[in-house]
Amino acid sequence: MSKNLRQAFKINPNGIKPETVPCKTLRTGDEIPAVGLGTFGSDRFSKEEVADAVLGAIANGYRHIDCASVYMNEPEIGEALKIAMEGGVKREDLWITSKVWNDMHKQGDVLLSCAQSLKDLKLDYLDLFLMHWPFPNYHAPGCDGDSRNPDSRPFSVEEFMATWQQMERLVDMGLVKNIGTSNMTIAKFNEVYDLMRIKPSINEMELHPHFQQQELYDWCIEHDIQPIGFCPIGSPTRPDRDKTENDTVDIEDPVIVAAAKRLGVHPAVVCVKWAVQRGQVPIPFSVRENEYMSNLQSAIDNPLKDEEMEAIAKIDKKCRLIKGQVFLWEDADSWEDLWDLDGKILGYNK
Ligand SMILES: NC(=O)c1ccc[n+]([C@@H]2O[C@H](COP(=O)([O-])OP(=O)(O)OC[C@H]3O[C@@H](n4cnc5c(N)ncnc54)[C@H](OP(=O)(O)O)[C@@H]3O)[C@@H](O)[C@H]2O)c1
Fold first, then answer.
1. Rounded to 5 degrees, what angle do the CA atoms 169, 174, 176 make?
2. Which of 123, 168, 234, 263 has the largest count of CB atoms under 10 Å?
């Protein structure tokens, strides 16, 4: 946290009024702001830069922040949240999400992970705690992108439910108000949904114009699970190691560019508008004030026309960006094996 910001924090009277940002009502009755700020700086932005952006975003009207222990910046973001709350922002007006990482699924570890996130974020409850991935496979830090962890294995209902039951206990204990899933498929949901005592309020999933996941989106809505959309702009400046030659670029799509021209905005803003108008909650990342403010503003004014929404619905390229190849088990073939493409969960025997 830079000293200047720490000393200068005050709610900007000329920022966006948080009460003008629409909300989505969840199955618990809680309301989540329709746009959140992503906080995964990858290796492009320091923890301090991300925390400064969180503080600047809150000063200017953001109330929803998407965090995760694996982003390794929760202590710095916690400092920003503390300064904001000391500066007059009420805790109950903030929506703070965190997530349990894959190496903390074992018995007792989910509580430890949640407690650590609460300590780091300097909070006594979370609005939302997500199971970041539906399996305990993880990738040792610094490990080669193509290497496989010998402990990784296919999805297991028993393992998933043992972790989910720990998530449910966090609700019972009052440490988290909502729990949810991330990176799920319909096939996996079908195996676990009926077994869940507390149903997920949220499924956080990759959603952008070139990756619309319409079936999973519809499944979530039918089951009263609100989708949060990550990589809403198609993560255009992600590191090269996370790009493949077949990946497409949402913000260069002629349909997106045409709508951006009409509105006089960056194509990124069109992606955020499309997300909000379709009904998911996007969590675009940026540390640049002009960008994160135009993303929040996009939920408030100048909506896309019906014909633009219809045209964007037709540009789905089924281009998944977060492929998850680092979570594959030893005899898996390729990243597609993680995503149950033909409706079957590979390697899982009922
Ligand atoms: N649950 C999960 O498994 C999961 C997975 C991935 C991500 N996430 C969450 O989703 C968040 C967002 O995903 P992401 O950061 O990968 O991708 P993204 O939000 O689609 O793209 C972020 C990039 O878009 C550019 N951008 C943002 N707003 C812009 C604007 N108004 N005009 C022009 N350019 C703009 C910025 O580029 P520059 O930085 O170059 O300005 C920024 O780095 C993450 O931070 C994280 O919180 C969750």
1. 80
2. 234
Non-local (6+) Cβ contacts of 301 within 8 A are none
Residue 343 lies in a domain: no
Cα(235) to centroid of ligand 1, in Å?
A: 5
Domain range for residue 70?
3-338
Minimal-distance CA residue to ligand 1 atom 23: 235
pLDDT digits (tens, 9 = 90+) for 275-287: 999 999 999 999 9
Whether 207 lines ligand 1, by a CB cut-off of 6 Å, is: no
3-class state of residue 285 by DSSP: coil
| Residue closest to 285 by CA, chosen among 104, 40, 10, 9 | 40
| pLDDT tens, position by position, 297-328 | 999 999 999 999 999 999 999 999 999 999 99
Residue of 301, 303, 297, 298 lying closest to 14 (CA atoms): 297
- Taking the whole predicted model, whether its pTM rises above 0.90 is answered as yes
Does any domain span residue 348? no
Q: How far is the CA of 10 from the centre of ligand 1 (A)?
A: 26
Q: Does the C-beta of 349 come closer than 6 Å to ligand 1?
A: no
Residue 10 lies in a domain: yes
Ligand 1 pocket, residue 78 CB under 6 Å = no
